[in-house]
Amino acid sequence: MYEDSCFPASELNTHGPTVHGWRSAVGSGLGTHDIILRFHQPAKIYRIQLLAHQYLIPEKVELWLHYSPKSLPSTPSSQYFDFLGFVALQDNAYTNYKSRELQSVTVNPRRGTHLKLRLIGVHCNEYNTSGQIALMAVNVLGEDLESAAINIGEENVTSESPPIDTATGELALASLCDDLLFSMYVEESIVQYIRELEQRKMQAVSSERFEYARKLKLCMTALRTAGERLGRYALAKRQAVQQEDFSAAKLRKEQIEMYRACVLKQLHVHQLLESEGVLSQNDQSCEVYAGGKPTLPPAPSLQDVAHALAEAIIPPKSTSMQDEKSLNDATGTSEIVVGSIVASAAALHLHAKSHDELPQSPRLPMASRHSSPMSSRQGSLRRRNKSAPRNSYEDYEERAIPTLRHSNTNEFLRECQGNALLEADPNRSRSRLNDRERRQAALPILVFGSELVEQFYSRQFQDREDGLMRLRNFLKQEQELVEGETNDNEHAASPNKVARSAALLLHRAVRDAVYSVFNQATETVRVLFLEYVPGRVSPNEVARCVDRLLPELLAKSGDPSARLHTLAQHTILSIAACPQVAEQHLVAPALSRSVGSGTHQRLAMSRLQMLEQLVHTQGISTDKHSGLTCRALSDCGCSGIHHPAEPVRKVAERILLLVYKVNPRLVRKQLPPDDDITRRNLLYRQLFTEFDKLDLERKQELLEANKFSSSNDTDFLQPTTSTDASRLLKSKNGHPVVTDNGYVSCNGKQQYNEQLKRSMLSASNSRKGSVSNSESTEETTPKISCPFCGWCCTGNDASQLDRHYWKTCPFLTKCPQCSQVLEVAALNYHLTTECDAKDSYVVCTRCTESVHKQLYELHQMEDFCRELETGAARCPLCHDDVNLPLDGGWKLHLLNAGGCPGNIRKRNLKKSN
Asked: What are phi and psi for residue 91, nearest 5 degrees?
């Protein structure tokens, strides 16, 4: 024998909670096992379902199908099986060998009379040392071949496609009871009731009794929940029988009958079946089915069953001596029954084993219990005292059925007495802190108490809101105590500890997905930094609090919801307004980082908007650590104007204009040269136009200041600045920068004008002090150089540079549609937004290149049309990825010898040299 005698293959003929399944013999040594199933009559097969064991798992299961007509005899020697395919099974190590794998395979409609399952290999693990394999259940779905031939014709039986559910795209089941997940975990009698109710529902729909059909549907759903619970009780009864604890088995049997009777009476099942004919009550609304899903009666516990049996044994009281004697006998009998129940429970606790096999499966770890749907809802309903003795009932009732842990039938896993405990103690809904959470919140518990901290860790959002309100009131009361100089409490926590504890709790609250909780959290953050921190908390602790909260708020500022990112921006600006935060420059450096082209539009725009607001409120600083220097702002603005989103580019332009009012030379130095080729780009054209307006305003202010100056010849050389520049240029102390002569310092073109006038008065031939944006006269021999590729030539002929741009510069290319010369990096953007033929081009959603609409389908079939790497750009000439940052990556790609292979101008440049 190659199968275990206790687990024969005949177990696969039935489905139910108490089915053992098939199992190979111990130490059989065979690597392949064949199981042949014969159908009652020829059938057309649509789907095959296999339920594997939790740790006796084969590596794969092959499916073979044989068909023999009724006219021909079928013997094992004459059977020829067609190979349908195989199903590979997981080793189940990631579930700690507790879950059973259910595989459902949809096959093309095939005729068959025999199904052969070939189990190959074995997954070895610590619970399967003997090399056994097992199969819990097999389910074959299809229809009779005779009915199929009558419906669609004999010649189309094998070619007809299986019925597909249009909603889910999967195979449509003829009945809900046909699914293996249903039949394996619902009690058998309830399955029969559900089948009858389903037939009644179909008849009700055909006769247009829709109220009756609605009741039947709700009743079937409630019966399934009750059937899963009854199946659970049936497993416990079988376990008691295997351990020969017949008193407990009797209690389980009575419990099943009592609960089944209560459910059938509560749901009016016999009335809905209409066994005696049509009932008019079923077409009318009733209280049970009026509010949607009907409520099930509470399940009786073993104590309730034992008490009911004891009351049934005790007869009514009598005054006669005979009645008293019988009463004493009955009482003694009931005491014996109850005593046997307690003794059997103790025996179960000492000798408990698995209900279907001798080696017990490993119990679920605590982490998996917390992650299961049942435990997440019950929370503190689990037993706290692990050292307390427990009987077999508790040992089984806390055990999750492995296959249904991640399914939609979570009612099967709900504990019987959970609702009663929850109603008895409302505080049980607030989850207690586990060891890990208690270690994380050790300091907040010490400062605020465990009750407030438990509200922050609660699963109810109302508790989290109450916790935030209590924390905000605590911070305000602490502020009032300090203002009143009350030092009565000598053991109160220091302000640094209070701030650190509040930051730990708020770090959890600002990540909350509920908007009302996040709103309360941001309000508490503002109270912390604007009311509690100033003048009390040390700078190091303030920096630690900002480092903890600022990244989460920055992430929230990029949320697609308008109310979320607006609230996050307002909170960040409120933190930046705190004096201790502004002195240490904790917020601005995080906002003034360069904006990459891959940064999300909402996040990039929020950062730039907050940076612009900080420039208006705090001004441009000269402290290099402030994050608000001219260089940091210009770097951020220059990276922002290259962002693909137009709103981000607009905000970056405004930041560059603010910096240009203070230091125009620095801004122009980081941008391409102001010439005709650059101004062909719409972005630079608008930006340089604004720069020209600011230069004109500055010159007009300079002339007006000189007009009203004193009559001294040198007085008109005194530099003046505009009102906007004097307001924006600040030192790190917040005051304007003053030179040794008492005048406000200036930069850029204003400094150039001052030096130019001085050189005119002194009639000096040297121009060492004058530096402009477009020329440099430090060398005696004039040179013309390309700002892109570094090409240079001697002379003053500007036509040579234009010729270089037009023909040989490898950094530039010509638009194939409008023949405009522009940078290679801007060609894709130009074709879709600026070119005259932009309506004929679209952006490829995969590789982000600009493609002609007529060639879009052919483009997507090319090999170079692939996903763009993170932080890279796509070259339109060779279709390779160009690693950013910005121009540095493009120069390396276009100018190196082994760079862009599709750049023709690189070869022309070598010839010209």
From this structure: -80, -10
Report the distance separating Cα 816 and Cα 591, nearest Å.
40
DSSP annotation of 24 reads B
Q: Which of the four pLDDT bands, split at 50, 70 and 90, describes residue 540?
A: very high
Residue-wise pLDDT for 249-288, tens only, equals 888 899 899 999 999 988 888 888 888 888 888 888 888 8
Break the chain down into helix, strand, coil percent, rounded to 5.
50, 10, 40
Distant-in-sequence, close-in-space partners of 157: CB < 8 Å, separation ≥ 6: 44, 109, 111, 145, 148, 149
DSSP string, 207-258: TT-HHHHHHHHHHHHHHHHHHHHHHHHHHHHHHHHHTT-HHHHHHHHHHHHH
Both tokens assigned to 766: 């040297």
Alpha carbon 494 to its chain centroid, in Å, reads 38
Report the interhelical angle of 515-527 vs 539-557 (nearest 10°).
150
- Identify the three-state secondary structure at position 383: coil
3-state secondary structure of 22: strand
**What is the three-state SS of 318-374?**
CCCHHHHHHHHHHHHHHHHHHHHHHHHHHHHHHCCCCCCCCCCCCCCCHHHHHHCHH
**Other Cβ atoms closer than 10 A to 212:** 23
Count other Cβ atoms within 10 Å, centred on residue 640: 27
Using CA atoms, how far apart are residues 509 and 520, in angstroms rounded to an integer? 9
pTM here is 0.38
Three-state SS annotation for 116-166: EEEEECCCCECCECCCCCEEEEEEEEEEEHHHHHHHHCHHHCCCCCCCECC
* DSSP H helix total and E strand total for the chain: 35, 14
The residue to which tokens 């305000």 are assigned: 476
CB 793 within 8 A of CB 784: yes
CB 873 within 8 A of CB 882: yes
Residues whose CB is less than 8 angstroms from the CB of residue 785 and which lie 6 or more positions away in sequence, other chains included: 791, 792, 793
Length of the chain: 913
> Angle, nearest 10°, between helix axes 188-206 and 210-242?
170
Two structure tokens written together for 315: 């007869």
- Asked if 227 and 183 count as a contact pair (C-beta separation under 8 A), the reply is no
* Residue 357 neighbours by CB under 8 Å, 6+ apart: 23
